[in-house]
Records
---
Amino acid sequence: MSDTNNPGSTPESTAMRNMAQGNQWEDLRKKARQLENEIDLKLVSFSKLGTSFSTITANGFDSSDTSPLLSASNSEHMFHTMAMEIEQLLNKLSDVNDRMADYAGSVSVASPSAALLHTLQRHRDILQDYTHEFHKTKANIEACREREELLGSVQREIDSYKSSSGLNRRTDLYLKENEHIRNSERIADETISVAMATKENLSSQKSTLKKISTSMNTMANRFPVLNSLIQRINLRKRRDSLILGGVIAVCLVLLLWYAFR
């Protein structure tokens, strides 16, 4: 109800209420502007943080294949802290805007002026812009973080594959070297076995020849005529050898004499 319909109201009390309501509106406007300034500064810092995240992601992936991307604990802590602070400020500004809307639609203000409605709408637009910018920047940063996690996992898999491949190569070399050593030992064992078999065969042949020689001597001693016959055969072989040597010598002398004549 308006002040004119309130019988207990006086012009002085009405003026005081109007002044109090005017002060309340100004306080709300000051609070809204203060929150808007704080949010604006926070959003600028938050946007710089997102830009630095994007730069680190691009340069980090191009410059070094092993450097972690966006994985510093201080960056993660800064991101979450700033996001929480901005959300709290946005909630406070939304609450102030709601209080300003309640004031504009209160009973004590029967017909709010166009300037008051314009001011209220401007603060709502600013809140909407700040909220949209915050969510956009946050989404960009989260997209960079997700990209970093994907690239980091892929890079870790590549590094793991490289390290495992190098280990496998070293293991293959050790296995090949071990196989060569075993082959050398096997060849050496085979050579030793052949040498021992040859020694056994020679020993067996020596024993056989010794038995034959012993048997021949025994037979020669047992049959003297046979021994005499063998001696004659040996003497004839020597004589034939001497005759053959003499003939060869005479032929050589004649050939030399004919050649130098």
Note: The chain is about 90% helix and 0% strand.
---
Amino acid sequence: MASTSAEEQEDSSSSLTNELLKARDALEKLSLDNVQITDGDDELAAFRQQWQRELESNPSPQREHSHIDTKLEPEETLSDEEKAKQLFLRGVELERSGKLYEAIQHYKRSMQIIPDVETRLYESSEQRPETPIIEDLKVEEERHVEDVESDEDMIEGEELVPRLQRILAKRGTLCQPEFITRGAHISWLPYEVIQLVLRWAVSADLDAVTLERISGTCRGLYLAAREADIWRSLCIKTWGIECGTPRTHGFTSWRQMYIDRPRIHLHGCYISKTTYLRHGENSYQDQSYRPWYLVDYYRYLRFFPDGVVLMWTTAEEPASCVGQLKFAAVKPSLGIMAGHYRLVGDKVVIVIKRVNSEKKPAQASNTRFRSRRRDTHEQQEHIFHLELELHNVRKRRNWQLTWRYYAVAYRRDQWTQFDLTPGKFPPFAFSRVRGYTAEAYAPLAAHM
């Protein structure tokens, strides 16, 4: 089809040229035949000369058409991928020059041809620019020099936080990528968005351990993780809205108050292991044989930020039990009991209520046809009252819970208090469980 259209255009152009030549010959013949030149002949001669000048100045349609064909031939030979790449690169140039609307149009046209043109363009070895890598290396060297200079400009007696603030103010950025990267980096985010990311890292489970680990990555995140609003929210969620201020408790900052003040760890379980000997039955064959059994069982306490506590007494090992205490939903079939706790100074007061339903046989009632026995369900309510005290173990703060009071009420007015001997009631030791803080379901709420 293309060849036929080209032939038609050539025929039309040649015919037009022939007609123009015939008209010029006719005019020349008329000028030779006329002997007398009048005023009309002068006008005709002037028109003929002007027409000749226009024909000489303008190229013939045939030559113009051939010029257009030679110009369009390289574009027709380009593949779709090359066209898409040229459009995309043109869009990059327009975007750099500030013409965003035109750049978007070029991007759309290139992606209509090849959707992944950007990936093909920048991941191919032929299209990767070499100069930006050299520039990035120079920037990295400049940053290293700045870091060395900032380390040399240390002021004697200056604290770490003011020193880092001075360094980052001089640099003008919160953080910078250590290695050359082609993708997005956290340093591109505004400071408010980074604060929101940190609140998601702490989450509603008050995972301050993750916040401290983030602060150890770089200087900028170290300062962002020391923001007073985050630690103030942690303190209010731990001790309530009436927790006071750091000055009232003798602390210099909200972070120091959260770390040094007695509190419950929420990113794991407090586990207590009890071991005792139990005398078995004598053997019928050998009366002198008296067996003894070594019995082990565990008590688990799992605390939640909203004041809910789970207690579980079982003989199962911790590896198979801590996963059952991840959520506050109670599983009565396993014997897990749910209650509430309150932190008063260095003491933890726990109240747990358990309701047991037992079947009780009723008296037989004789009817006309047969005797029927109906079972009645009687609910027994047990209330557990525990008081535990927080202790530090070496350098680990709030790592141990010791017994101070334990009583059970089988009825409302009948309380049974236990003798808290160390053998029967050993202290609870904290054990971190990584699965409890592996996911964040809500950010740390901000308090005004």
Note: The longest strand covers residues 375-393.
---
Amino acid sequence: MTLPLDVPTAINQRRSIKNFTTDPIAPELLKTLVELTVAAPSSFNIQDWRIILVQDEAQKAALAEAAWGQKQIIQAPVTFVFAADAAAGGGDLTPIYEQALSTGAWSEGTVKYFKQAIPGFQKDLGEKTREYAIKDAMIAATHLVLAA
């Protein structure tokens, strides 16, 4: 078993890999990778992205075709797909407020402020909500790469 790398070493040694073994990835490791990915910061912690883990052979083949025939999608035991969700900030944000309070990330005063600020901020973004969602999805994907 190889030891985990520290973050600077992982960044310096990172390489784009185009060939993969088909060895399965342990469910516990996938769970850990997802947990570390969703810990990524996002605008107001809205997490305006979704992760889809593609493991089914037919779905991997369809995804590979949609990705201009990239064979590594078929070879890899799992592919993480990140989708930006520009509408995420327009819904009920109560779970975000509750989680932030329960973890101590935000105080009651911060939650009160954000309950007023977030809807206005999202409305003022207009078409840029898509850009924020893409940016946040890219940050989450970077967390996945570092975690992996």
Note: Residues 29 and 148 are 9 Å apart (CA to CA).
---
Amino acid sequence: MRIKYTISVIFIVTLVIIEKENNIISKVSDKLSTKLTPLTPLTSLTPLLFGPSLSPDPQPNVSSDPHLNLENWTWSTPERVRPTAGGPKHILLLATTRTGSSFVGEFFNQQGSNMFYLFEPLWHVERMLSVERGGTNASVSGPAYRDVLHQLFLCDFSLLESFIEPRPEGHVTAALFRRESSQSLCEEPVCTPLVRKAFERYHCRVRRCGPLNLTLAAQSCLQKEHHAIKSVRVRQLETLRPLAEDPRLDMKFIQLVRDPRAVLASRMVAFSSKYKIWKRWAMGEDLPVDEDEVRKLKGNCDNIRMSAEIGLKQPAWLRGRYMLVRYEDIARFPMRKAAEMYSFIGIPFSTTVEEWILKNTQASKEVSGVYSTQKNSSEQVEKWRLSIPFKLVQLVQKVCGPTMTLFGYKFAENEDMLIDKSVSLIEERTFL
């Protein structure tokens, strides 16, 4: 009997000890989860979350690399590891070409020492995919853009490196697109001593630096409190859902839009060789409508509209994370709109940014605030109305009508209305 009793006691004690150990392991696991820093590099966590097969390939093959084809990449989002309201912010400025995105990007680039800003890093991704595939395809480029952005917001440049040509040696490159447009990449300690034999097409303007050391750039990124990226290459907001759902990031998406008629007028000047057929139409040549060109225009407008519709509906994954801004409103009221953006993001609006805006918009202080006058701004905003013929305006209105209506751009009913600048083609709108 004593032996049976002793065995029973030992069994019970063993169960109690195991239970206590399980509780301890659970608590330690919870603490480790909560101590994951918001900027832990993606490469260090990828094998833990998805298995070793998803580590970035140094020479990505878009057709076979599983990292570049994660169509259903999702993240668990336990509330206990959500960034705090006053913690680091991650801002993605989404736009298309000729919408004023470079100007608006400076609102974040000029923020100062607590902001790490990157200008169009996806240029390299688009270029490589275009070369390898004879053009970009949304089903391939979308996931690739998403994955590169995801790593960059986590201060990991390894995947971007694999798209840079020529390939960086020792994580050092002289070929990063528009490096000079990022203050963070042109300041110490990222600005290394000048190497005179190395040619940098996009060298820093304010100070001469050696080729960009991406290891130093990543370290600088980790030391900055907030992170912002500007891109004109993402076609659909929906593809970026994993960024919003990553518990290490506090993502804010700002979509910048502009009147498609003005965009076309600007592109015809800036990208003259690509818009030859449009220029010939504008000059009065009697040519048949190029269906491919019209299809491209419609595709661009539809993509912008669909992304905005998703953002404005505020689904659960985007709630409090999306803001729509019109270029026309920024051009007319730059200080007010910049302040609204910073309020949306949750970052104090610095005097450095204010001073930059005042200097670069020639705004003047008025009784009601510090913006340039609405009259002068309106003249700048709508000067496109005198640069393209009414027949092109009609075509854009026909193809991009739903997009224009969503964003509050009025249709020009005839040529007289088009050129009469006393008649505004911009509805006053508030986008929540």
Note: The radius of gyration is 26 Å.
